[in-house]
Amino acid sequence: MADVVLLTGVSRYLGGRVARVLSTSGLVERVIGVDVVPPTHDIGDAEFVRADIRNPVISKIIATEDVDTVVHMNVIATPTFVGGRSSQKEINVIGTMQLLAACQKAESVQRLVVKSSTSVYGSSSRDPAMFTEDMGPQRQPRAGFGKDSMEVEGYVRGFSRRRPDTAIHLIRFANCIGPSIRTSLTDYFTLPVVPTPLGFDARLQFLHEDDLVRAMVESTVGDHEGIVNVAGDGVITLAQAVALVGRPSVPVVAQAAGMIGGMFKRFGLADFSPDQMSLLSYGRGVDTTRMREAFGFEPEFTTREAFETFAAAVRESGYQLTGRSA
Questions:
Q1: Prediction pTM value
Q2: For the domain with range 4-176+207-231+285-299, which CATH number is right: 3.40.50.720, 3.20.20.140, 3.20.20.70, 3.40.50.2000?
Protein backbone atom coordinates (compact mmCIF):
# COMPACT_ATOMS: atom_id res chain seq x y z
CA MET A 1 0.00 0.00 0.00
CA ALA A 2 1.30 3.45 -0.95
CA ASP A 3 1.83 5.88 1.93
CA VAL A 4 3.18 9.09 0.39
CA VAL A 5 2.43 9.56 -3.31
CA LEU A 6 4.01 12.22 -5.51
CA LEU A 7 1.86 12.88 -8.58
CA THR A 8 3.10 14.98 -11.49
CA GLY A 9 0.89 16.99 -13.85
CA VAL A 10 -1.90 17.80 -11.35
CA SER A 11 -2.74 21.10 -13.04
CA ARG A 12 -3.88 19.24 -16.12
CA TYR A 13 -7.33 17.68 -16.34
CA LEU A 14 -6.48 14.00 -15.95
CA GLY A 15 -3.76 14.58 -13.36
CA GLY A 16 -6.17 16.67 -11.30
CA ARG A 17 -8.85 14.01 -11.44
CA VAL A 18 -6.44 11.28 -10.36
CA ALA A 19 -5.21 13.49 -7.49
CA ARG A 20 -8.78 14.12 -6.34
CA VAL A 21 -9.84 10.47 -6.42
CA LEU A 22 -6.60 9.18 -4.91
CA SER A 23 -6.44 11.73 -2.09
CA THR A 24 -10.04 11.12 -1.01
CA SER A 25 -10.01 7.33 -1.39
CA GLY A 26 -8.62 6.53 2.05
CA LEU A 27 -6.16 4.15 0.36
CA VAL A 28 -3.08 6.38 0.77
CA GLU A 29 -1.89 8.62 3.59
CA ARG A 30 -0.81 11.65 1.54
CA VAL A 31 -0.84 12.82 -2.05
CA ILE A 32 1.59 15.54 -3.10
CA GLY A 33 0.65 17.12 -6.41
CA VAL A 34 3.43 18.77 -8.42
CA ASP A 35 3.18 21.12 -11.39
CA VAL A 36 4.60 24.40 -12.68
CA VAL A 37 1.32 26.29 -12.24
CA PRO A 38 -1.35 25.97 -9.53
CA PRO A 39 -4.37 23.86 -10.54
CA THR A 40 -7.58 25.72 -11.32
CA HIS A 41 -9.68 22.64 -10.56
CA ASP A 42 -10.38 20.64 -7.41
CA ILE A 43 -7.59 18.22 -6.49
CA GLY A 44 -9.32 16.92 -3.36
CA ASP A 45 -7.12 16.56 -0.29
CA ALA A 46 -3.88 16.53 -2.28
CA GLU A 47 -1.17 18.97 -1.20
CA PHE A 48 0.00 21.13 -4.07
CA VAL A 49 3.70 21.96 -4.45
CA ARG A 50 4.71 24.34 -7.20
CA ALA A 51 7.75 22.80 -8.84
CA ASP A 52 9.13 21.98 -12.28
CA ILE A 53 10.18 18.37 -12.75
CA ARG A 54 12.80 19.62 -15.22
CA ASN A 55 14.57 21.23 -12.28
CA PRO A 56 16.75 19.20 -9.88
CA VAL A 57 14.75 20.70 -6.99
CA ILE A 58 12.34 17.79 -7.47
CA SER A 59 14.96 15.61 -5.73
CA LYS A 60 14.65 17.70 -2.57
CA ILE A 61 10.86 17.33 -2.55
CA ILE A 62 11.01 13.56 -2.90
CA ALA A 63 13.66 13.25 -0.18
CA THR A 64 12.11 15.76 2.24
CA GLU A 65 8.62 14.31 2.00
CA ASP A 66 9.83 10.69 2.17
CA VAL A 67 7.90 9.78 -1.00
CA ASP A 68 7.50 6.03 -1.56
CA THR A 69 5.36 6.08 -4.75
CA VAL A 70 5.86 8.33 -7.78
CA VAL A 71 3.07 8.62 -10.35
CA HIS A 72 4.21 10.33 -13.55
CA MET A 73 1.33 11.81 -15.56
CA ASN A 74 3.05 14.90 -16.95
CA VAL A 75 3.65 13.48 -20.42
CA ILE A 76 1.80 15.85 -22.72
CA ALA A 77 0.23 14.71 -25.99
CA THR A 78 -0.70 18.02 -27.65
CA PRO A 79 1.94 20.71 -28.26
CA THR A 80 -0.54 23.56 -28.72
CA PHE A 81 -1.58 23.23 -25.07
CA VAL A 82 1.96 23.97 -23.81
CA GLY A 83 3.25 26.56 -26.25
CA GLY A 84 4.52 24.45 -29.12
CA ARG A 85 6.49 21.36 -30.03
CA SER A 86 9.76 22.48 -28.40
CA SER A 87 8.09 22.99 -25.01
CA GLN A 88 6.22 19.70 -25.34
CA LYS A 89 9.40 17.73 -26.01
CA GLU A 90 11.29 19.45 -23.20
CA ILE A 91 8.53 18.71 -20.67
CA ASN A 92 8.07 15.13 -21.83
CA VAL A 93 11.67 14.02 -22.34
CA ILE A 94 13.83 16.29 -20.19
CA GLY A 95 11.19 16.34 -17.45
CA THR A 96 11.03 12.55 -17.33
CA MET A 97 14.82 12.27 -17.31
CA GLN A 98 15.14 14.64 -14.35
CA LEU A 99 12.27 13.00 -12.45
CA LEU A 100 13.77 9.53 -12.82
CA ALA A 101 17.19 10.83 -11.79
CA ALA A 102 15.56 12.14 -8.63
CA CYS A 103 13.82 8.81 -8.03
CA GLN A 104 17.08 6.95 -8.51
CA LYS A 105 18.73 8.94 -5.71
CA ALA A 106 15.83 8.54 -3.28
CA GLU A 107 15.99 5.31 -1.30
CA SER A 108 12.43 5.90 -0.09
CA VAL A 109 10.96 5.41 -3.59
CA GLN A 110 9.61 1.87 -3.86
CA ARG A 111 7.14 2.19 -6.73
CA LEU A 112 6.93 4.09 -10.02
CA VAL A 113 3.76 4.35 -12.13
CA VAL A 114 4.11 5.91 -15.59
CA LYS A 115 1.31 7.00 -17.91
CA SER A 116 2.45 6.08 -21.41
CA SER A 117 0.60 5.68 -24.70
CA THR A 118 -0.14 3.13 -27.40
CA SER A 119 1.38 5.71 -29.76
CA VAL A 120 4.71 3.94 -29.11
CA TYR A 121 3.52 1.27 -31.57
CA GLY A 122 3.24 3.83 -34.35
CA SER A 123 0.83 3.47 -37.28
CA SER A 124 1.74 1.99 -40.62
CA SER A 125 0.43 -0.20 -43.41
CA ARG A 126 2.55 -3.10 -42.12
CA ASP A 127 1.06 -3.19 -38.61
CA PRO A 128 -0.54 -6.33 -37.15
CA ALA A 129 -4.25 -6.32 -36.34
CA MET A 130 -3.43 -6.06 -32.62
CA PHE A 131 -0.18 -5.15 -30.90
CA THR A 132 0.74 -7.06 -27.76
CA GLU A 133 3.03 -5.51 -25.15
CA ASP A 134 5.96 -7.60 -26.40
CA MET A 135 5.76 -6.25 -29.96
CA GLY A 136 7.60 -3.26 -31.33
CA PRO A 137 6.49 -0.81 -34.01
CA GLN A 138 6.79 -1.83 -37.63
CA ARG A 139 7.70 1.77 -38.36
CA GLN A 140 9.00 3.79 -35.42
CA PRO A 141 7.41 7.19 -34.76
CA ARG A 142 9.88 9.76 -36.04
CA ALA A 143 8.35 12.89 -34.54
CA GLY A 144 5.76 14.21 -32.13
CA PHE A 145 4.16 12.56 -29.13
CA GLY A 146 4.85 9.02 -30.34
CA LYS A 147 8.59 9.67 -30.44
CA ASP A 148 8.45 11.37 -27.04
CA SER A 149 6.64 8.37 -25.57
CA MET A 150 9.29 6.00 -26.91
CA GLU A 151 12.04 8.13 -25.34
CA VAL A 152 10.15 8.27 -22.04
CA GLU A 153 9.88 4.49 -22.00
CA GLY A 154 13.58 4.23 -22.80
CA TYR A 155 14.40 6.29 -19.71
CA VAL A 156 12.06 4.11 -17.63
CA ARG A 157 13.87 0.96 -18.81
CA GLY A 158 17.19 2.54 -17.89
CA PHE A 159 15.84 3.43 -14.45
CA SER A 160 14.64 -0.15 -13.93
CA ARG A 161 18.17 -1.43 -14.54
CA ARG A 162 19.69 1.03 -12.08
CA ARG A 163 17.00 0.54 -9.43
CA PRO A 164 15.88 -3.12 -9.68
CA ASP A 165 14.43 -2.80 -6.17
CA THR A 166 11.74 -0.41 -7.44
CA ALA A 167 8.43 -1.81 -8.72
CA ILE A 168 7.54 -0.24 -12.07
CA HIS A 169 4.13 -0.24 -13.75
CA LEU A 170 4.07 1.35 -17.20
CA ILE A 171 0.60 1.75 -18.69
CA ARG A 172 0.14 2.26 -22.42
CA PHE A 173 -3.23 3.95 -22.78
CA ALA A 174 -5.26 4.11 -25.98
CA ASN A 175 -6.44 7.57 -27.05
CA CYS A 176 -8.49 9.01 -24.20
CA ILE A 177 -11.91 10.44 -24.94
CA GLY A 178 -15.07 11.46 -23.12
CA PRO A 179 -17.52 14.32 -22.56
CA SER A 180 -15.09 16.64 -20.72
CA ILE A 181 -11.57 16.04 -21.98
CA ARG A 182 -9.91 17.99 -24.78
CA THR A 183 -7.20 16.42 -26.95
CA SER A 184 -5.88 16.86 -30.47
CA LEU A 185 -8.33 14.17 -31.62
CA THR A 186 -11.37 15.82 -30.00
CA ASP A 187 -10.35 19.05 -31.73
CA TYR A 188 -10.16 17.12 -35.00
CA PHE A 189 -13.62 15.57 -34.63
CA THR A 190 -15.21 18.96 -33.82
CA LEU A 191 -13.92 20.71 -36.92
CA PRO A 192 -16.69 22.29 -39.04
CA VAL A 193 -15.73 19.89 -41.83
CA VAL A 194 -13.60 16.85 -41.00
CA PRO A 195 -10.88 16.03 -43.57
CA THR A 196 -10.36 12.29 -43.93
CA PRO A 197 -7.52 10.51 -45.77
CA LEU A 198 -8.68 9.52 -49.24
CA GLY A 199 -8.79 5.74 -49.68
CA PHE A 200 -8.43 4.91 -45.96
CA ASP A 201 -10.85 4.11 -43.16
CA ALA A 202 -8.68 3.56 -40.10
CA ARG A 203 -9.64 1.31 -37.18
CA LEU A 204 -9.47 3.31 -33.93
CA GLN A 205 -9.45 2.35 -30.26
CA PHE A 206 -10.42 4.66 -27.43
CA LEU A 207 -10.48 4.67 -23.64
CA HIS A 208 -13.04 6.64 -21.66
CA GLU A 209 -11.58 9.33 -19.40
CA ASP A 210 -13.24 7.74 -16.33
CA ASP A 211 -11.57 4.40 -17.11
CA LEU A 212 -8.16 6.04 -17.45
CA VAL A 213 -8.55 7.65 -14.01
CA ARG A 214 -9.62 4.33 -12.47
CA ALA A 215 -6.66 2.52 -14.04
CA MET A 216 -4.17 5.09 -12.71
CA VAL A 217 -5.62 4.91 -9.20
CA GLU A 218 -5.69 1.09 -9.17
CA SER A 219 -2.11 0.95 -10.39
CA THR A 220 -0.97 3.42 -7.71
CA VAL A 221 -2.47 1.53 -4.78
CA GLY A 222 -1.85 -1.97 -6.19
CA ASP A 223 1.21 -4.12 -6.64
CA HIS A 224 1.08 -4.62 -10.41
CA GLU A 225 4.33 -4.41 -12.39
CA GLY A 226 5.47 -4.43 -16.00
CA ILE A 227 4.00 -3.00 -19.19
CA VAL A 228 0.29 -3.21 -19.95
CA ASN A 229 -1.99 -2.00 -22.76
CA VAL A 230 -5.22 -0.40 -21.57
CA ALA A 231 -8.03 0.25 -24.07
CA GLY A 232 -11.77 -0.14 -24.41
CA ASP A 233 -13.07 -3.29 -26.10
CA GLY A 234 -13.56 -3.26 -29.83
CA VAL A 235 -12.75 -0.69 -32.49
CA ILE A 236 -14.63 1.84 -34.56
CA THR A 237 -13.65 3.09 -37.99
CA LEU A 238 -12.86 6.70 -38.76
CA ALA A 239 -15.98 6.95 -40.90
CA GLN A 240 -18.15 5.65 -38.07
CA ALA A 241 -16.60 8.14 -35.65
CA VAL A 242 -17.25 11.08 -37.97
CA ALA A 243 -20.85 9.92 -38.46
CA LEU A 244 -21.38 9.70 -34.68
CA VAL A 245 -20.45 13.35 -34.16
CA GLY A 246 -22.68 14.36 -37.07
CA ARG A 247 -20.00 16.26 -38.93
CA PRO A 248 -19.64 16.46 -42.71
CA SER A 249 -16.38 15.03 -44.01
CA VAL A 250 -14.27 15.65 -47.07
CA PRO A 251 -11.70 13.15 -48.41
CA VAL A 252 -8.26 14.64 -49.03
CA VAL A 253 -5.25 13.16 -50.78
CA ALA A 254 -2.12 12.58 -48.72
CA GLN A 255 -0.24 15.38 -50.50
CA ALA A 256 -2.84 17.93 -49.35
CA ALA A 257 -3.05 16.71 -45.77
CA GLY A 258 0.01 18.65 -44.63
CA MET A 259 -1.23 21.91 -46.15
CA ILE A 260 -4.71 21.52 -44.65
CA GLY A 261 -3.28 20.53 -41.29
CA GLY A 262 -1.03 23.58 -41.28
CA MET A 263 -3.99 25.84 -42.03
CA PHE A 264 -6.04 24.40 -39.15
CA LYS A 265 -3.05 24.73 -36.83
CA ARG A 266 -2.45 28.39 -37.75
CA PHE A 267 -6.06 29.22 -36.92
CA GLY A 268 -5.92 27.27 -33.66
CA LEU A 269 -8.61 24.81 -34.74
CA ALA A 270 -6.66 21.56 -34.41
CA ASP A 271 -3.13 20.24 -34.16
CA PHE A 272 -2.18 17.97 -37.05
CA SER A 273 1.08 16.23 -36.25
CA PRO A 274 2.63 13.59 -38.53
CA ASP A 275 1.87 10.80 -36.05
CA GLN A 276 -1.78 11.84 -35.88
CA MET A 277 -2.05 11.83 -39.67
CA SER A 278 -0.57 8.31 -39.71
CA LEU A 279 -3.11 7.19 -37.10
CA LEU A 280 -6.00 8.60 -39.15
CA SER A 281 -4.71 6.76 -42.21
CA TYR A 282 -3.70 3.37 -40.84
CA GLY A 283 -5.29 3.18 -37.39
CA ARG A 284 -4.01 1.11 -34.50
CA GLY A 285 -5.22 -1.80 -32.38
CA VAL A 286 -3.77 -3.22 -29.17
CA ASP A 287 -4.35 -6.52 -27.42
CA THR A 288 -5.69 -6.17 -23.86
CA THR A 289 -5.32 -9.74 -22.60
CA ARG A 290 -2.62 -8.73 -20.11
CA MET A 291 -4.84 -5.88 -18.88
CA ARG A 292 -7.42 -8.40 -17.70
CA GLU A 293 -5.28 -11.36 -16.70
CA ALA A 294 -2.29 -9.62 -15.06
CA PHE A 295 -3.58 -6.16 -14.14
CA GLY A 296 -7.09 -7.38 -13.34
CA PHE A 297 -8.61 -4.25 -14.88
CA GLU A 298 -11.89 -4.12 -16.80
CA PRO A 299 -12.92 -0.86 -18.55
CA GLU A 300 -16.52 0.16 -17.97
CA PHE A 301 -16.84 1.56 -21.49
CA THR A 302 -16.13 -0.11 -24.81
CA THR A 303 -14.37 1.89 -27.51
CA ARG A 304 -17.69 2.73 -29.15
CA GLU A 305 -19.42 3.60 -25.88
CA ALA A 306 -16.55 5.88 -24.89
CA PHE A 307 -16.72 7.70 -28.22
CA GLU A 308 -20.50 7.97 -27.99
CA THR A 309 -20.23 9.89 -24.70
CA PHE A 310 -18.01 12.40 -26.47
CA ALA A 311 -20.28 12.57 -29.51
CA ALA A 312 -23.35 13.14 -27.32
CA ALA A 313 -21.61 16.01 -25.52
CA VAL A 314 -20.68 17.57 -28.87
CA ARG A 315 -24.26 17.39 -30.13
CA GLU A 316 -25.71 18.75 -26.87
CA SER A 317 -23.31 21.70 -26.91
CA GLY A 318 -24.33 22.70 -30.40
CA TYR A 319 -21.09 21.39 -31.87
CA GLN A 320 -19.02 23.94 -29.93
CA LEU A 321 -17.56 21.63 -27.30
CA THR A 322 -14.65 23.12 -25.34
CA GLY A 323 -13.28 20.52 -22.96
CA ARG A 324 -10.36 20.65 -20.56
CA SER A 325 -6.97 19.71 -21.97
CA ALA A 326 -5.56 16.37 -20.92
A1: 0.92
A2: 3.40.50.720
